[in-house]
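Researcher: I'd like a candidate sequence for this fold, 348 residues long. If you have to choose between options at a position, lean toward the conservative one.
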């Protein structure tokens, strides 16, 4: 039975998820329900259900948004067609796309404009992959890590670009990169990998945890690509690993021969679920933080939302002097306000 839990640092919410959750929290506080969101705001069932309970309706077709309703576009990024469709239908549109996904969209457009054929390494059907491929569908080929470059035939082998879904596993990306580099000596790739810093940090923590633990548990939802990648990293390092939604998902037989349990969470998993897992395991020697690196990244609220809130704040201050001149308000203090605190405002 477990004597100790090694708790990975960093784990859980990344800067993009922090931004998206706080942005949708602002939406439900400003507008009368329902507020619409195109696709799940982040890939975590607990977070989605928490927002549904306060009047958010998640849709997979932008035509399901009533004319004039407020709508948010998810953190995974949307196709140009969806962005335009939302602008035509909705009264207020806030795009909560992660800036790292936006970077990949810009790279796709730039390379397409320069006449490149694009290899995009990603998972078929994932929201991020769907939105990215739609930026330049005529020149981009979705390549899944499991199948590699089979079937990819560029029109000009000297003009091939390689881009990636931000939540891939490092080994998934590396294997395709190695193959493409050998086939296409002039291959273009971004100077800095498209893989999200939070994804790689969490995978590095799991890799190091594997040497010190008998079992690794990863808190996160089944449709979370970065969560699934953490499980694969642990298994590739030779350590038994399981993805769990919450503490209730743990099976007793997993713990029988596990003296030290490693614990982490995908980038969209709330930290209170992690604490509940520790309580469920109830290690005899408690838990210990296992820190690999510090994360200090911060992504500000979407530009459209900042403008809307600034105008609203100015109107309130002008009418009621709600904030003393020269003092900062909630918008200015956004960097110090966390998604965990935001979710506490909407929890029943």
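Model: Candidate sequence:
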């Amino acid at each position: 039975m477990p004597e100790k839990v090694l708790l990975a640092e960093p784990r859980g919410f990344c800067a993009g998820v922090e931004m998206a959750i706080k942005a949708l929290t602002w939406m439900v506080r400003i507008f009368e329900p329902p507020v619409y969101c195109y696709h799940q705001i982040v890939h975590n069932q607990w977070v989605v259900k928490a927002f549904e309970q306060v009047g958010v309706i998640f849709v997979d077709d932008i035509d399901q948004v009533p004319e004039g309703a407020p709508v948010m576009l998810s953190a995974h990024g949307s196709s140009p067609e969806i962005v335009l469709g939302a602008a035509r239908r909705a009264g207020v549109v806030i795009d909560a796309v992660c800036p790292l996904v936006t970077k990949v969209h810009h790279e796709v457009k730039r390379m397409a404009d320069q006449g490149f054929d694009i290899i995009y390494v990603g998972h078929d059907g994932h929201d991020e992959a769907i939105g990215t491929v739609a930026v330049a569908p005529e020149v981009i080929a979705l390549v899944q890590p499991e199948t590699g470059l089979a079937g990819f035939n560029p029109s000009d082998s000297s003009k091939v670009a390689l881009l990636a879904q931000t939540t891939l596993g490092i080994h998934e990306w590396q294997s395709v990169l190695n193959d493409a580099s050998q086939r296409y000596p002039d291959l273009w790739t971004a100077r800095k990998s498209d893989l999200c810093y939070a994804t790689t940090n969490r995978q590095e923590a799991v890799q190091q945890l594997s040497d010190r633990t008998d079992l690794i548990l990863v808190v996160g939802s089944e449709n979370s690509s970065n969560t699934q990648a953490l499980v694969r990293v642990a298994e590739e390092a030779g350590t038994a690993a399981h993805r769990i939604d919450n503490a209730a998902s743990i099976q007793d037989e997993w713990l029988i021969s596990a003296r030290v349990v490693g614990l982490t969470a995908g980038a969209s998993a709330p930290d209170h679920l992690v604490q509940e897992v520790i309580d469920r395991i109830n290690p005899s020697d408690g838990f210990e933080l296992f820190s690999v690196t510090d994360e200090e990244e911060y992504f500000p609220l979407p530009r459209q939302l900042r403008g809307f809130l600034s105008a609203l704040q100015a109107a309130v201050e002008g009418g009621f002097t709600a904030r003393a001149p020269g003092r900062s308000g909630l918008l200015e203090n956004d960097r110090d306000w966390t998604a965990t605190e935001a979710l506490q405002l909407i929890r029943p």
